[in-house]
Design a protein that fits this description.
The complex is a heterodimer of chains A (295) and B (427). Chain A is mostly helical and 295 residues long. Chain A is built from 14 helices and no strands. In chain B, helix 3 packs parallel to helix 7, helix 3 packs antiparallel against helix 9 and helix 5 packs across helix 7. Chain B has 427 residues and is α+β, with helices and mostly antiparallel strands. The chains are: A mainly alpha (295), B alpha+beta (427). The interface between A and B is large, with 98 and 92 residues.
């Protein structure tokens, strides 16, 4: 054994070291290019962060990249101010309500429908699923005008509820598509034996399908959350005083230069939460993306 | 309940909430929108296709259609190509996860917030806009700004302009002295280290001269080097012979004096080159009316490249290693393997990415509102935004608004049919 090991030591190292160095040298340009691209991709977001820390007077005379100059130009004052700013904090809480409602409701509704489409027998099942697939790409612009009128008639215009309901409807095609495709993959035996044991469909749904479907539901939850949190057009159309953060920032954009001390920190706060969700659940996010990249 | 209908009844129970949402919020409104698009702005008079005609005759909307055509032609192809390149480059790099996370990150951010980010990046003033600051570094490397910006001759004997440089009209022979007086230079703009101006005394095979700030408190006499007037150091001057060919060049000293040596007999002109007057890099107007769509597209690609990269990378990982290895053993170069094996095997994935981007681009909206300043909004218009503006943003014409929505729907219709057909084939 020792002899073999010694042989290996004698024979291998010059080869591996040389070839390893060669490989690293050969790949150096690739690494450099990738580092360059990575920095390029990171800079804009860092720019927003740095800008959000600049005092308004500094914004007009310095680039944000001078933030670390001595003496430092960074100040927490902007953040302190926007958390004292009634409309901004109110819009953050509105955003959270819309995003939570707009995530939970469509998942519930879609899971029920997806189970029926995957495992229940009924006439026209395939046609219904085809209709869902067709609705995946229907632009929401097709619904804005009639829903605007309906909301006005029902008197729910400009409420969190009206926004949640709209997000639910337009989130459904993707949600049903994703969950149905996942549920179909659940082994038939598990369901059959539960049915033979006399479990009701409701029980099977709650006790088997939902727990087994958790990975897909997690992916979907992240998508729905990001999509509703980041929405602009729906809230801009059906909200006036019900303003999520995107709309609140939008209303400041008219005076970009003079309101930058509100715009930049508010924009950074608005993207910090989706980013945190993204980093915490990146795996599910990517899975969902791969499962459903037809939308 | 009869046994035969028990199954469907249970199914209906599961489906009912979804059917209500899809029916009330998508199907019914879509039909209403189609009907509404044939009525006038009040919704009372049936006007057949007049709304559709006005789509194509209203300048703001035709601009939107043209811009969206650019988006469709450029973005899906670019995003797919960039995603493919990133996925392939990172495939065999050990820190690919870090790279992919960085590139993918903008996907989590709202397009609106991404727009705010790029609004900051794209500012024109290079001291504030990072994009132009980067360009300024490159620009100054190749054509640095001059140190005599805004200066003009103190006397009419110097002719020309800041763009072409200034030439002393009076011809000089060897031994002559060129007096190049300039004004319009603020005290703080005088180059550092400037001393009292002094004209040199050239020998018989030299032409000398002085370039100086021909001004002192109180004015002084133009064209005369006086006490209290500063020389302008570091100015590059050149000598031209009677045929206009270069015969020498020199740079002025601290007192503004310069000499051309070894000058042969003849008539000469002294010139202050245009480079001395070159204005600094003013910054590209990314958010102006001309470049706004390219700027928006850059921001949009920044957001979506990560999506393409991740999906394509997953497709790449699914390609059997053996296939690639076999090609390599057969003597194919990396480039050949990429073009002849990898790309064809990836075709279905590339198609999915391309089509997804096509749909996204047709619906582009938020980023335009966020990036384009008020003055360029009209030039940056896109179909989804035109629909919104027409229906809700001031025009308040539900007839034309509905027609634009239907137009948008017709544009995505082929993709809708493609998706349905693909599902039918798989099922």
């Amino acid at each position: 054994m020792t002899a073999v090991a010694a042989d290996a030591v004698v024979l291998r190292p010059p080869d591996t070291v040389a070839s390893r160095i060669l490989r690293i040298v050969a790949k150096a340009p690739v690494h450099l290019v990738l580092v360059f691209i990575g920095v390029l991709w990171l800079v804009p977001t860092l720019g927003l962060l740095a800008t959000s820390l600049l005092a308004p007077s500094s914004f007009n005379s310095f680039g944000w990249w001078k933030i670390l100059s001595k003496p430092s130009l960074a100040t927490w004052k902007n953040y302190h101010d926007i958390f004292q700013n009634g409309p901004i904090t109110h819009s953050l809480s509105t955003t959270a309500q819309i995003a939570i409602g707009g995530t939970v409701l469509p998942i519930l509704v879609a899971a029920l429908a997806a189970y029926a489409l995957a495992w229940l027998e009924f006439p026209g099942r395939d046609w219904l699923f085809i209709a869902v697939i067709a609705m995946l790409v229907v632009p929401l612009q097709m619904a804005l005008i009639p829903i605007f009128s309906i909301y006005n008639k029902l008197g729910i215009f400009d409420t969190v509820l009206s926004l949640v309901l709209f997000h639910t409807a337009f989130g459904l095609p993707f949600a049903i598509f994703l969950l149905r495709n996942f549920f179909v993959g659940i082994p038939r035996d598990i369901l059959e034996s539960a049915r033979i044991d006399g479990s009701s469909e409701a029980r099977i749904f709650l006790r088997l399908i939902l727990p087994l479907g958790l990975p897909a539901i997690a992916s979907l939850a992240i998508f729905q959350f990001l999509w509703t949190w980041n929405d602009l057009i729906v809230a801009l159309t059906f909200g006036r005083t019900t303003q999520p953060i995107t709309v609140a920032i939008f209303s400041q954009l008219g005076e970009f230069g003079s309101n930058i001390e509100i715009i930049a920190p508010a924009a950074f706060v608005s993207l910090a939460i989706p980013l945190a969700v993204f980093f915490a659940f990146q795996r599910y996010f990517v899975q969902g993306l791969l499962a459903g990249s037809v939308k | 309940m009869p046994g035969r209908w028990r199954g469907p009844a249970v199914a209906l129970g599961f489906l009912l909430p979804a059917l209500v949402f899809l029916g009330v919020w998508i199907v019914y409104p879509a039909i209403r929108t189609i009907i509404r698009s044939f009525y006038d702005r009040d919704g009372t008079k049936f006007i057949w296709i007049d709304n559709y005609k006005s789509i194509f005759s209203t300048p703001t909307i035709t601009t939107a259609i043209k811009n969206n055509a650019i988006w469709v032609l450029v973005v899906p192809a670019m995003v797919t190509a960039i995603g493919l390149v990133f996925a392939v480059l990172t495939e065999r790099v050990s820190w690919r996860l870090a790279f992919r996370t960085v590139v993918f990150m903008p996907m989590a951010v709202s397009l609106f917030a991404a727009g705010v980010i790029w609004r900051i990046m794209d500012q024109q003033d290079p001291t504030r806009g990072a994009l132009n600051a980067g360009l300024q570094v490159v620009h100054d490397e190749f054509s640095p700004p001059g140190n005599l910006q805004g200066a003009s001759p103190s006397e009419t004997t110097l002719t020309g302009s800041a763009k072409t440089g200034f030439v002393l009209k009076t011809p000089l022979k060897p031994g002559g002295v060129a007096l190049l007086g300039l004004t319009g230079i603020a005290p703080e703009a005088v180059p550092k280290g400037a001393q009292q101006a002094a004209a040199p005394t050239p020998s018989s095979n030299q032409i000398g001269g002085v370039v100086w700030r021909d001004f002192k408190p109180g004015g002084g006499t133009p064209g005369k080097v006086e006490s209290g007037e500063l020389g302008l150091p570091g100015v590059s001057v050149s000598l031209k012979d009677a045929n206009g060919n270069g015969a020498g060049s020199a740079t002025s000293g601290p007192n503004g004096a310069f000499n051309f040596d070894g000058v042969k007999p003849g008539d000469y002109h002294v010139e202050i080159g245009a480079a001395n007057f070159r204005a600094p890099f003013a910054g590209v107007s990314w958010l102006g009316t001309k470049l706004i769509t390219p700027s928006l597209i850059i921001a949009y690609i920044w957001v979506w490249a990560g999506f393409a990269m991740v999906v394509i990378a997953a497709g790449l990982a699914a390609i059997p290693r053996d296939t690639l290895e076999a090609a390599r053993t057969d003597g194919a170069t990396e480039m050949q393997v990429f073009r002849r094996v990898t790309v064809p095997l990836l075709a279905p994935v590339l198609t999915v990415v391309f089509i997804t981007m096509l749909i996204n681009v047709l619906k582009v909206f938020d980023i335009v509102l966020a990036v384009a300043p008020g003055s360029s909004q009209a030039s940056a218009n896109v179909i989804a935004l035109a629909m919104w503006r027409t229906a809700f943003g001031g025009v308040n014409d539900f007839g034309v608004g509905s027609a634009i929505a239907v137009f948008l729907f017709v544009l995505v219709l082929p993709i809708l049919l493609l998706n349905v057909r693909r599902f039918k084939r798989e099922a």
